[in-house]
Amino acid sequence: MIDRRTGAGLHRVLAPAGVLPQAADRLDADPRVGPDEVRVRVERLNLDAASYRQLHTAFAGEPDKIRAEVLRIVGERGKMHNPVTGSGGMLVGVVDEVGPESPLGLKPGDRVATLVSLTLTPLAITDGLARWDGRSEQIPAEGHAILFARSIAAVLPGDLPVPLALAVMDVCGAPALTDRVVRGLPGQGAAPVVAVLGGAGKSGSLALAAARRAGARTIGLVPTAAEQECLEAAGLADVVVRADARDPVAVSAAVIGALGVPADVTVVCVDVPGCEHGAILATAPGGTVVFFSMATSFPAAALGAEGLAADVTMLIGNGYVPGHAEMALDLLRSVPGVRSLFTARTVADSAQ
């Protein structure tokens, strides 16, 4: 059993003193491993959707400027921690060295995906991201990263292409928590209703698949006709509706109109800010809203619910539920609609 006060990488924090690595301004990315650490040779980074969208918007999609900003952040902070969104992503790499006291069960040569955020992972980039065109969330890279005793990493499955496995593991917390919430609902006469805002995205499609497997009726909300067509073709939602997730009245009308009742559970998987109030309005009294987007404003969510006198439970999807990677990979393998959406997404990214 790891002492909760240790194994969290406190010794890697350079500033400010006394905080955990995620809250730090700067981390020490020294490649020398401590007794309970693991060094990973980086092969690919995966920026979270909110961070990549912010960078792409801020620099008008100019690849050189986006690349330079990622390098600046990593160089200055010793980790990929976007100062605007507060988010990072994850990575794939090969284990280089394992400290003798590491409890992670990894060995040199293992190809792994880190299932903890880049915002708390010491990271150094050595190739200037020369192979990245700045046009997708996945970044070919060389360098090293350090995992702590309380980090989480999964050995990549041999039956899936690395970009596909990385895309799934990046959001594997979403289906696991959705499953837990749906199965924890009190018994009802009718199946519960789960609405997923951003249902055609990575986390959204997995959340829909998990909700349906748990016995829910599902509604997928998307912003465009193209995404509606894709999600309908995937067959993951009983009803697909279209609305701007930032428009509370439109979201509420679309969700309630889909099956004639508000959602028992609303899952927010949209990577733009301003989606809190629509999710709250679309959720039944006594229901649950799960926020999986790093673009969420939690003050807006809490104060908005208060202002609407909305009796809803609000959960932060923290990205970790025991068994989350295995569940997400099982959904990818067993649900054709999930596989088709993810495959199309990774093919589109590699073509850019």
Describe the structure.
It is a single chain. This protein is α/β, with parallel strands linked by helices and 352 residues long. The protein is 34% helix and 22% strand. α4 (173-183) packs parallel to α5, α6 crosses α11 and α10 packs across α11 (336-351). The chain starts with 12 loop residues before the first strand and ends with a helix. The relative contact order is 0.13.
Quick check: average pLDDT?
A: 94
Helix content percent band: 25-40%
Q: What are the secondary-structure elements, in order, as H or E?
A: EEEHHEEEEEHHEHEHEHEHEHEHH
What's the number of extended β-strand segments? Answer: 14
Number of helices: 11
Major β-sheet strand ordering? 6-7-3-4-5-8
Question: How would you name the CATH homologous superfamily of the largest domain?
Answer: NAD(P)-binding Rossmann-like Domain
> For the record, what CATH class of the largest domain applies?
Alpha Beta
